[in-house]
Each structure stands twice: as structure tokens, then as C-alpha cells.
Design a protein that fits this description.
By secondary structure, the chain is an alpha/beta fold. It folds into five domains: about 60 residues, no CATH class; about 60 residues, 3-Layer(aba) Sandwich (MutS, DNA mismatch repair protein, domain I), CATH 3.40.1170; about 160 residues, Rossmann fold (3-Layer(aba) Sandwich); about 140 residues, P-loop containing nucleotide triphosphate hydrolases (Rossmann fold, 3-Layer(aba) Sandwich), CATH 3.40.50.300; about 60 residues, no CATH class. Helix content is about 35%, strand content about 20%. The protein is built from 16 helices and 25 strands. The strands form five sheets. The chain has an eight-stranded mixed beta sheet with strand order 15-14-16-13-17-18-12-19. Helix 9 packs antiparallel against helix 11 and helix 10 packs across helix 11. The N and C termini lie far apart (about 60 Å).
């Protein structure tokens, strides 16, 4: 038995212990506790005269290796991991929640993400079990040098109070990564971090290596190696989830709203990690898939708005909306296209009140020519209102007013990006921009060689965007998430204390105006 750390808790010090192979995440009884003399303060390494005893202390306090089998009584059940599922074997016909009978193996099974709940259910019924689910690699002792701000401490505490499951919703630039690092430090368990982009993968890997000084595995970006701390893209984790499901005690999902995607859900479903943390600036999804995420990771346990952090932890900011008029020719094209779309909805009894309504329209378009024409008409109307000539003229005025500021211009379409880049001689970043070119543009923007850049939604999330103090939203999806992410790109505190300014340019008397109004 090796003592790997000591944590004071009242009059008790809980001692994490482990062998070469240990069971990560929530531990099993019995628990080893050092009890110091009442009159003395708990020492960092334990007291020389401390008494060691076995107790039923808090689950999360300690990792406990499984005793040799010949020293154990026969358990009511045995838990093992197999291909993304928890296999429950028992001589008795146990009615265990969350499980279904597997006729082939004559056992009961539950999806990997039910591991923690399954153990709790067995404990509540007073059933003993031999737990061999997790086979996590050893994580050397890690410690973070970061000092949490008050709101970060509150977020981490809320997550712990929720059973170390749940989603934390904080603005871009508020230090969500730091909270994840602190969670790893507290649990001292093998951890998988899942991210949506290569840029975020590289950022997390650098941060973990710099902060903890241990090897960090990487799945994605041309590498496929697993360590006790591993960072993966959602795509790579999806391909290997059943294989990796028993290797980690903690899973951190950055930009966790991506987990609501149909395929990505299997990542969380197949992982057995009992501790789960989701990080995002905007949890809710228009299609309602955040409810699926809540089941797999835990619901939203903490949220704080940018307004609450502005001034102290984020830059103070202001939002200015500028309404522009379509030209007569643009108005005619917009109205004609919009009429085709709305007429079809009326005939088909589709209300377009949620993302599922839009998905139904897309599904119909595969076999219904009128549905396809309605979708194309909707796209034509969007292009007119998002790419109007008046928006381009307005941008020229805004850029003239902010010659000495650092400006990011956001659009929805690559065509408009290149149009603006050519007209105003702006460096452009789109999905078509190569990684090396994008890195050079952002580096030169960071160093001050460029004072402005235009981009489509490629910079909305998952990219380390240099400091800017002005953002111009010429067009976008109109979603709350997109708006919040783009606002977050200018909210990092400025050395000179200057406030950030976001311009929202919308076409009057269009769907764009109505969406912007709802956000307010």
C-alpha cells in the first residue's frame, strides 16, 4: 500500500492509496483513514502518532485497491467492462436497475455511462459486488499552480455537490479550462478530455503538459497514443469509445453541446468514467438535444452570464445594433423567395418552431420536389438578407471609426468573407484556409502586424483567437450560442481597461431582425 496524498476533512485525513492497477473514479469500501490526535492539527504528510483504521468514509475521498479474491466472501454480483457496456454476473437472478438481460451471455448489461448509478443502486440494496470495471493507467501525483477565482470555485463546488457530474456554463474567456485542471487535481485519476477541434486539442495538451509536467496522450491530429491524461477530438473518441471506455475515471467534455450530435452521443454512452464534466458557453441546443447530454453527463449545475463578470474578470462591453435597409431589388428577391418558403409551410402544416421541424422539412426534401424548392427558397432569402450591399457600406463606416482598434468581422458565408477581404484588404480565415496560413494570420494579428481580420464561423469556437476589442457581426445563424461565442472573442480583459464593443448589423424587416429581437 502506498500513500499518495493526504487530504484533511474535519478531524479525519483521507489517504488515497493504490497499487500498480487501481480502480479510478469513485472508490469501493472499505476505506483507509488516518485519524490524528484530536489536540493536534492534521499534518500534510500524516501524523507520526496517527491511528490507522477502516471506516466507511466518503466515497470520493480515496482510491482503494481490490483485496485478493481468496480474502473475500462470495459477492452477490461481479461487474466487468465489455465493449462499452457494464456486464453484471450473478448466480442469483438480480433485478438490477439500468440493466437488460443479455440472452447470449446469460448476464445483465448496462451501457457504460450507467456505471456510477449502477453501483449506487447495488449499494442501496445492500448487495455486495466484485468491481473490475475500470482498468485505468496510473496517474502520477499532479498539482495545479492556478488559484481559482470565486466564480470558478463556486462552479467546481457545484459540480462536486452534484456528485461530480454535470455541465458548467461560463462565458468564453472566463477560464473554463482552469476549472477542468482543478477537477483533475482533486480527483487524481486518469482523465480523458474531449474537444471539437484540432486547435482546442493542441491548447489542452499544451496546458496539461505545462501545468502537470506529465506525458499527455493525444487522439487526433495525426496521433493515436493513450496516457493517463489524454486529449481527444470528438471524432477520434467516437471511433474508439468502446475500446477506451474502461481507461478513465474522469471525462471532461469541452464545448459539451457537441455531444448532442447523433453520433457523438455514443462517446459518453460507452465510457464508464463515473466522474463527468461538461464545459460550454451555451448549453441549450435549438433541437433540444441538450436533454440527451444531461442524461449522459449530468444537467447544468452552474451558470454565470458575461454581464456578471464584466469589469472584474472580463472586459466591460457594449452591444450596438445597426439596422440597414435592403435595396428595392434585394427586397423583391427576398420577398419572392420567402413567399415560396412560407406558402409550402402553410400547405404542409409545418410550423418551424423548433429544430426538429426544420429536420422534418429536410427529410421531406429528399422525396418531395416542392419541399426541396422550399428549402432552396429559404436559402436564397437568407443570402439576400445576410449579404446585403448596405451591410458592406456599414462595415466601411465602422472600420473607419475604429482605425486604432483590433477588429474581428464575422460573417456566415465564405463568399462574403472573400468579397470583404478583397474590398477592404482584410486577412481572411475560412474553412478553406490551410492550417499553416491560418496560424500565420492569427499570429500576425496577435503581434499587431494586422489590426483586423474577417472570418466565417470557423473562429466561433475551438480556436485561440488573439485579443481584440471590437467585433462586427455582419451575418450568422442568429442562434444564442453563436452570438455568445462571438461576443466572447472580445471579452478578455484589456491591459488599458478599454471596454469591448460588439456591432450587430441586421437587415430591417427580415427574419434576421426578428431573431435579433428575440435575443434581447
Amino acid at each position: 500500500m502506498v500513500t499518495v496524498g493526504v487530504r484533511p476533512s474535519g478531524n479525519l485525513i483521507y489517504v488515497p492509496v493504490r497499487r500498480r492497477r487501481f480502480r479510478s473514479g469513485e472508490p469501493r469500501r472499505p476505506r483507509v483513514v488516518i485519524e490524528p490526535p484530536r489536540a493536534s492539527e492534521p499534518a500534510a504528510g500524516g501524523c507520526p502518532d496517527a491511528r490507522i483504521r477502516v471506516t466507511a468514509g466518503p466515497r470520493q475521498a480515496v482510491y482503494v485497491p481490490r483485496a485478493p479474491r481468496d480474502h473475500q466472501a462470495v459477492a452477490d454480483a461481479t461487474l466487468t467492462f465489455e465493449n462499452g457496456t457494464i456486464r453484471v454476473e450473478s448466480d442469483a437472478d438480480l433485478d438490477v436497475p439500468f440493466t437488460e438481460t443479455d440472452a447470449r451471455s446469460k448476464t445483465r448489461r448496462a451501457p457504460g455511462f450507467r456505471y456510477a448509478a449502477l453501483r449506487d443502486a447495488l449499494d442501496e440494496r445492500g448487495l455486495s459486488y466484485d468491481d473490475s470495471v475500470l482498468d485505468a493507467p496510473d496517474l502520477p501525483d499532479v498539482a495545479s499552480t492556478y488559484e481559482l477565482r470565486e466564480y470558478q470555485r463556486d462552479a467546481l463546488s457545484a459540480w462536486e455537490d452534484a456528485g461530480r457530474r454535470g455541465v458548467l456554463e461560463l462565458p468564453t474567456g472566463s477560464g473554463k479550462t482552469v476549472i477542468g485542471l482543478k477537477a483533475i487535481e482533486q480527483l487524481q485519476t486518469a482523465t480523458l478530455v474531449v474537444v471539437p477541434t484540432i486547435d482546442l486539442l493542441e491548447q489542452w495538451r499544451r496546458e496539461l503538459e505545462s501545468e502537470f509536467g506529465v506525458p499527455v496522450g493525444q487522439l487526433g491530429g495525426g496521433e493515436q497514443n493513450v496516457e493517463a491524461l489524454t486529449v481527444s477530438t470528438y471524432d477520434s473518441a467516437y471511433l474508439r469509445a468502446d475500446e477506451l471506455g474502461d481507461r478513465f475515471g474522469l471525462a471532461v467534455f469541452d464545448e459539451v453541446h457537441h455531444l448532442g450530435g447523433e453520433g457523438y452521443r455514443d462517446i459518453a454512452r460507452l465510457l464508464a468514467a463515473p466522474a463527468r464534466m461538461g464545459l460550454t458557453a451555451t448549453f441549450e441546443r435549438p433541437d433540444g438535444a441538450h436533454e440527451v447530454v444531461a442524461d449522459l453527463v449530468g444537467g447544468k449545475v452552474y451558470a454565470i452570464d458575461p454581464e456578471e463578470l464584466a469589469g472584474d474578470h472580463l472586459a466591460p462591453y457594449d452591444v450596438k445594433r445597426i439596422e440597414v435597409e435592403l435595396t428595392d431589388e434585394e427586397r423583391e428577391r427576398y420577398e419572392d423567395a420567402n413567399e415560396v418558403f412560407t406558402n409550402y409551410l402553410a400547405r404542409s402544416d409545418i410550423r418551424m418552431q423548433s429544430g426538429s421541424d426544420y429536420q422534418e422539412l429536410v427529410k421531406r426534401s429528399g422525396s418531395d420536389p416542392e419541399a426541396r424548392e422550399a428549402l432552396l427558397a429559404k436559402q436564397r432569402a437568407r443570402e439576400v438578407m445576410m449579404n446585403s450591399d448596405a451591410k458592406v457600406e456599414t462595415l466601411e463606416s465602422v472600420l473607419a471609426d475604429h482605425r486604432d482598434d483590433r477588429v474581428i468581422v464575422f460573417t456566415a458565408h465564405n463568399d462574403l468573407v472573400y468579397r470583404l477581404s478583397e474590398r477592404f484588404l482584410l486577412p481572411a480565415v475560412t474553412h478553406q484556409t490551410g492550417a499553416a496560413e491560418r496560424r500565420e494570420i492569427l499570429d500576425r494579428f496577435r503581434e499587431g502586424d494586422y489590426s483586423r481580420v474577417v472570418t466565417s464561423n470557423v473562429l466561433d469556437e475551438g480556436v485561440d483567437v488573439p485579443d481584440a476589442n471590437v467585433a462586427v457581426l455582419l451575418s450568422g445563424s442568429g442562434s444564442e450560442r453563436e452570438f455568445t461565442q462571438r461576443l466572447g472573442r472580445i471579452l478578455r480583459p484589456k491591459e488599458d481597461g478599454r471596454p469591448a464593443l460588439l456591432y450587430e448589423v441586421v437587415s430591417a424587416e427580415t427574419a434576421e431582425e426578428r431573431v435579433a429581437e428575440r435575443r434581447r
